[in-house]
Design a protein that fits this description.
Two copies of one chain form a homodimer. With 445 residues, chain A is an alpha/beta fold. The first copy, chain A, has helices at 12-23, 51-60, 65-73, 79-84, 116-121, 123-147, 163-176, 184-190, 200-205, 209-219, 233-249, 264-277, 293-301, 313-316, 398-411, 431-442, and strands spanning 29-36, 46-47, 93-96, 102-103, 110-115, 151-154, 180-181, 224-227, 254-259, 284-287, 308-311, 326-333, 336-337, 352-358, 364-371, 379-380, 383-387, 390-391, 427-429.
């Protein structure tokens, strides 16, 4: 049983509530919806991601004997309740936005319909899984829009928040349009293309920088990208020009170079000039070092001759907006719509659907948040993905999701595609939903 | 093989460099040091954390046959190199700051001394592990200082970045002085006290709020904390006063209430007044909802009668400073000190030690970053923790680390203990280290 698989990766209150539901035989159907209450000011849209991992989690949910024993040992739970957990499985239905779909505040991206205890217990981990990949896909999308077709690679594992974040950031950025990742395990686990160059330590471990270049090149003749900025970036470029003929004689071509510090635009111009003058016009330039969408845009605006970018820390931790206000709320129980009315945190009740209108030219023209049973104009976005606890389809290939993201980004209104905070994309609330809300607010509790 | 354990949770360039080292038989001793280049403006000090997980990683590092096969299948590596990986183990030595030690910019918190390939490969995951727990412990310390002895509980799992972050945030905040966590698995895995109340969904699933309170209380009579803000916080407090005598007759005492929205100070005052007037003076008040050290200080300054705080998203994602500029750099190879000179990223070379001076009253009085073999006044902080790939001591109990943190926080200069950005704590560079650096800069590369 690994950390990520354990049913105990949940909040204690889920289990205390389950004990209440167990004692009260509250087992009727509950409907929970997962959505983001507000977009951060730094995000004009979000991209749904993480659904496959969420469905894996639901399909495999169970309590091991060891977990039951431990729960019993805490003295917090009745023997009867702990014993009943042996049969706990997720048997519900799920509707969701396909991964890679753009969405906005208050729009459900996932709905769970299941007996109350099942739908309740999964809250913590469902948010945990969908929050992170959605966060990273949404950040990566801004980089993709900024990079205007240049190569992007995820370099963020080391400062991602733990193992799972490092691995899933590779997935979320790749499905958004990154060319790949430096994280090797993401290659093995998801078939994502992996990219790598060299670190400063390899240069430092040699007494002479040119020896490091030559030996590294000889050890992987098919894939030589050299790092230039360990001591003096331009001096290193000259060394490379000197070295290239000798490598060519040995059948080794230099594919690219990486610059990781200083004024990247200026260094890129100097290095390009030195390499071109030395006949190395085919050698590509990769920039890295605290990059994000703003710096990428600035580098391209300055006409820095960079062919690609490694984006690390600011991607994998989404540093400008490191969390989303994502929640999972009960909207219906035992056939009755339900509404939380907490100050500043009130929800729209009932089973809802997102209806998206598209203009003749393909541009998104506004959404309507309505009730599932009162269709509105536009395309309904939530689709069935699980029934009776089993997936309806095999996992979508990442290539399909990448195509969807490409289409979604192209369809966004222009103002939403920039780095600037745009006026919010229009999301209307259907009149039937407003009426239901008013009705519920008149009920005593 | 789980995600967290896989040796392939590393950057591709580590493996391409290893292939070079393999081809060149570069197997001499390398010394790498892990440190933070700059403190974020929001942090006056950092607390080292994550060492136990880092040592676990080093002790268990190996390539499985499946991983070797996959590496071979990429076509990037020679058969000879891949075959040699079967025997790869970490056999080096490690020195480190004990967990919970305060530290500052440029001070190594961990040093690895091992054959170059071993010391190189572990870079990505060592940073990944030490970065996250150090990040969270350092954030949690600010909450602990702000809360002035009130109860603090980690509520952040759902918006932590993935499974491992959720679990390790519980550990990092507990070792810093939090009373515990809502994350159940942290209880099972680390023996950390777990705390839980109820969610709004339990209230919403009942038609009447008072029924929800009564049934929840009856289902866990020893541990009743009720959530008041689903509809109307003060109305819920009055319901509680009405309900209490009936519960008392059944032998059930209400332990506490939680308020999760609105003006927490004002609601807390109203609720305290209602509960006290109703004879419920013993019932404690827990506040939650987007809390951090600033809001906790403000609530206490406003004399909000809150007895404790649940801190979630802003803790587990360290939202005001979601990453640290933590790096792992080669400082010596084959007996020769090494130095990276990249612009803005130059390092202090050689094997270093942190010497800490303490004033007569116990307050930290300034550090000196010096060479290990040129002792300076003060206490050396880096201690041996691993040799020949094995731990020197069993893992420290968390209670020992908690005691250390308590002493460290008490010993910090007063200006560093506030929420404001203080002038940097003094860290001198020893003259011998400056001289070594100058010497190395005169060497050609």
């Amino acid at each position: 049983m690994t950390i990520a698989d354990s049913v105990l990766l949940t909040d204690l209150y889920q289990l205390t509530m389950l004990q209440t539901y167990h004692a009260e035989r509250m087992n009727e159907t509950a409907v929970f919806e997962l959505f983001v209450r507000r977009l951060p000011p730094e995000r004009n849209f979000l991209l749904a991601a993480g659904l496959e991992q969420a469905l894996d989690y639901l399909e495999n949910l169970c309590f091991t004997a060891e977990e039951q024993d431990w729960l019993a040992s805490t003295g917090r739970f009745s023997a009867d309740f702990v014993a009943a957990l042996a049969d706990f499985r997720f048997t519900g239905a799920v509707q969701a936005l396909p991964e890679g779909t753009a969405f906005f505040a208050n729009e459900p991206i996932l709905r769970v319909i299941a007996p109350l205890p099942q739908a309740q217990l999964v809250e913590s981990r469902l948010i945990n899984l969908l929050h992170y990949q959605t966060l990273i896909a949404s950040k990566a999308a801004r980089c993709v829009l900024a990079a205007a077709g240049k190569l992007l690679v995820d370099f963020g594992l080391r400062r991602a928040h733990g193992a799972e974040a490092g691995l899933l950031a590779a997935r979320a950025s790749y499905l958004t349009g990154f060319a790949g990742t430096a994280t090797v395990l993401a290659g093995m686990q998801f078939g994502i293309p992996i990219f790598g160059t060299m670190a400063h330590s390899l240069i430092q471990a040699h007494d002479r920088e040119e020896d490091a270049f030559e030996r590294f090149a000889a050890a992987q003749p098919g894939n030589v990208t050299l790092l230039l900025d360990t001591y003096d970036t331009e001096a290193a470029a000259y060394k490379l020009v000197q070295l290239a003929p000798r490598l060519r004689e040995r059948g080794i071509a230099i594919k690219g170079v990486r610059i990781d510090s200083g004024d990247l635009a200026e260094h890129a111009r100097q290095v390009r000039r030195i390499l071109d003058a030395g006949g190395l016009t085919h050698v590509t330039l990769l920039g890295s070092g605290d990059l994000d969408e703003h710096r990428i845009r600035a580098l391209l605006a300055a006409e820095a001759p960079l062919d690609g970018f490694g984006v690390g820390t600011r991607l994998d931790a989404s540093t400008d907006a490191p969390t989303l206000d994502m929640v999972y709320k009960l909207q219906e129980y035992a056939g009755q719509p339900r509404r939380k009315r907490s100050e500043g945190k009130a929800t729209w009740p009932g089973r809802k659907q997102v209806y998206r209108r598209v203009a003749a030219d393909g541009t998104l023209a506004g959404d309507c948040l309505g009730l599932e049973h009162y269709p509105q104009p536009g395309q309904p976005l939530l689709r069935p993905v699980m029934t009776q606890g089993r997936r309806l389809q095999p996992p979508e290939p990442l290539s399909v999701i990448r195509d969807r993201v490409r289409a979604q980004l192209a369809a966004l209104p222009a103002a939403l595609r920039t780095d600037e905070t745009a006026p919010p994309y229009p999301v209307d609330i259907a009149s039937e939903l407003r009426e239901l809300t008013t009705q519920l607010d008149q009920k005593p509790h």
